[in-house]
């Protein structure tokens, strides 16, 4: 089940935080609960993605995105993610999460998030590709329109090479997936 109570807690906890610039870093604290664990008493990989939501949504609030989306009837959807899991995280671990928008292109906003232990070591890191969606017209909103709505410079900061490489790799990835496997299975029948 989605952690709605924890999400509301994060919004409430950060309700008085100062607004951030569009590429500002939001920092939040989290505790790994028993229902976040897998059979090995470690933070479940899927739950890690859900916990990243708990940092990304208050970030969106602090930079003004949520208000701009509501005003225009727009939404926000994860359109891709790349995660590195580097350190074990066990039950009741206390983590600090850092979330920030890095850059954007003509379709997506690229957000970077990391979870850190008390000693400062990063346990996991995510690159999240976000799409702003128009519920009324359908389709993806160019992030430059979002920046205009926020009163921000519409030009993106330079895209780091590691993000540009991921974008290129994603563009080459076949869609629909496993088309070869389906064709082979059909031929075998």
From TrEMBL:
It comes from the Bacteria. It holds the Pfam family 4HBT_2. Coiled coil: none annotated. PANTHER family: PROTEIN THEM6, PTHR12475. This is Mesenchymal stem cell protein DSCD75. It comes from Limimaricola hongkongensis DSM 17492. The lineage of its organism: Bacteria, Pseudomonadati, Pseudomonadota, Alphaproteobacteria, Rhodobacterales.
